Amino acid sequence: MIAAERRGIADLIDSLSPGQLRTPSLCESWTVQQVAGHLVAAVSDLDVSTLLLLLRSGFNVHRANDRLARRVAERHAVELADLLRHNADNPFRPPIVGYPGQLTDLQVHGQDMRRPLGLPHELRPEALRVSLDFLVGGRAVGFTPKQRPAGLRFEAHDIEWSWGSGPLVRGTGEAVMLALTGRTVILPELDGDGVPLLTRRLRA
């Protein structure tokens, strides 16, 4: 699943114009190309320059991640796509979040890139279920705080997935995944009596 997502995003990058690559993504202050840089950096070799970058960032992982994504994104888009394809089957398993975290990172960031460009992309149900289970399973460090889904029931009506108890948040599997990872743009696509509470948590 991870390899397929990397290849799909590489194809996406190859299809985009320079203007599309400069478009702001759904992910914080990154452009579409900078999101691609982040995905490439996740499978690039850890070298001395990367360690120095982490040191200059005061060992703040999030700050170092941002700087690394921007630096890698300075490469030509064709090179970014080629690196993703070359590393499609890279077996690296991140600590704590493991392969489910890596798959989730690819699926979420792929939509971060596609949605602002109006490019629909149907995620595979089996991959979505892995990511949804991961996001509510307590190991999603850096993806969603544990208190975000607490006390709510989530249902993905298109892939027959549900979790939790309490006020209901219901939508497509993609919409639920993006909401759990903090994308407020997705809120109008959700329904249920738990949406107001989730909205407050996302905007707090």
From TrEMBL:
UniProt domain Mycothiol-dependent maleylpyruvate isomerase metal-binding: residue ranges: 3-87
InterPro entries (UniProt xref): DinB/YfiT-like (IPR034660), Maleyloyr_isom (IPR017517), MDMPI_metal-binding (IPR024344)
A GO term, aspect molecular function: metal ion binding
Family annotation (NCBIfam families): maleylpyruvate isomerase family mycothiol-dependent enzyme
Protein name according to UniProt: Uncharacterized protein (TIGR03083 family)
Origin species: Catenuloplanes indicus
Source organism phylogeny: Bacteria, Bacillati, Actinomycetota, Actinomycetes, Micromonosporales
